[in-house]
Amino acid sequence: MTGLRRVILAILIGTLLLGAVLLGVAMLRNRPQDLPWTRLDLGEPIGMFTGRKLAGLTDDYALCRALLRGAGVRYAMLAPVQGGERCGYADAVRLSEGGARRIDFAPSNLGVSCPVAAALAMWEWNVVQPAAQRHFGARVTRIDHLGSYSCRRIYGRSAGDWSEHATADAVDIAGFRLSNGERVSVLADWEKGDAKAAFLHEVRTGGCKLFSTVLSPDYNAAHRDHLHLDQAERGEMGWRACR
Asked: From the CB of residue 225, how many other CB atoms can be counted at a distance below 10 Å?
């Protein structure tokens, strides 16, 4: 057997063993969402491959919309936008009030790509609301944002890579309003070391399981007032970050 054949055989055996381990773990835990080949279900808890499946919705707008409907998420489809060389979108939705979602957005005209909308819904159910209950004994009623679609390159530079905002595949979160009347602000509360800071750090880290890239004030000064959440298809730019 040649060296190349040995390598190929080792890869095949390793792949089969990994698949068997994943299948065994998923069966023991009764969590099909832990398997890479099962269909994504937004109503299930976050699994080992949920983030990759959400990012993969970039290539299947019809499936993404069907998953939103199946999970009880209300939305309105947005007309396609063509904004130049690398800007625009054809898969954007505006999340509507009611249904399975209980958090409003301010301003209310937030339009994001469908994969971002799907990730936001799961973030609310699995990360944001549980964290709010733990830290404040309250629920989040509103998320303050700085927008999504913006035809620009990263940091607004005149050259370089295009921002995920240029295709509505990103959203910037500035703060949260609670049912007890309190407000949690990324700018004001990130470094306080209190319950509000702990909440912000928890929802940042939890978002990393659902979004391709999550950037916070820990990343750089440009993100001192918001959490950047984007759903670029993983591997497209050759890197991802959770900071």
From this structure: 16
Q: What is the pTM of this model?
A: 0.86
| Alpha-carbon span 216 to 200, nearest angstrom | 9
Separation CA 161–CA 150 (nearest Å): 14
Per-residue pLDDT tens for 126-158? 999 999 999 999 999 999 999 999 999 999 898
Pairing of strands 140-147, 104-106: parallel
What is the distance of C-alpha 99 from the center of its chain?
Answer: 20
Structure tokens at 127: 């990360």
The DSSP result for the chain, as a single string, is --HHHHHHHHHHHHHHHHHHHHHHHHHHHT-GGGSTTSPP-TTSPP-TTHHHHHHHGGG-HHHHHHHHHHTTEEEEEPPPEE-SSS-EESSEEEEEEEET---EEESS--EEEHHHHHHHHHHIIIIIHHHHHHHHSS-EEEEEEEES----BGGG-SSSSBPGGGGT-EEEEEEEEETTS-EEEHHHHTTS-SHHHHHHHHHHHHHTTTSSEEE-TTT-GGGTT-EEEE-PPTTSSS---B-
Phi and psi torsions of 87, nearest 5° = -115, 155
Please give the C-alpha separations between residue 143 and each of 22, 108, 121, 147, in angstroms, as whole numbers: 36, 10, 12, 11
Task: Give the tens place of pLDDT for each residue, 183-200.
Answer: 999 999 999 999 999 999
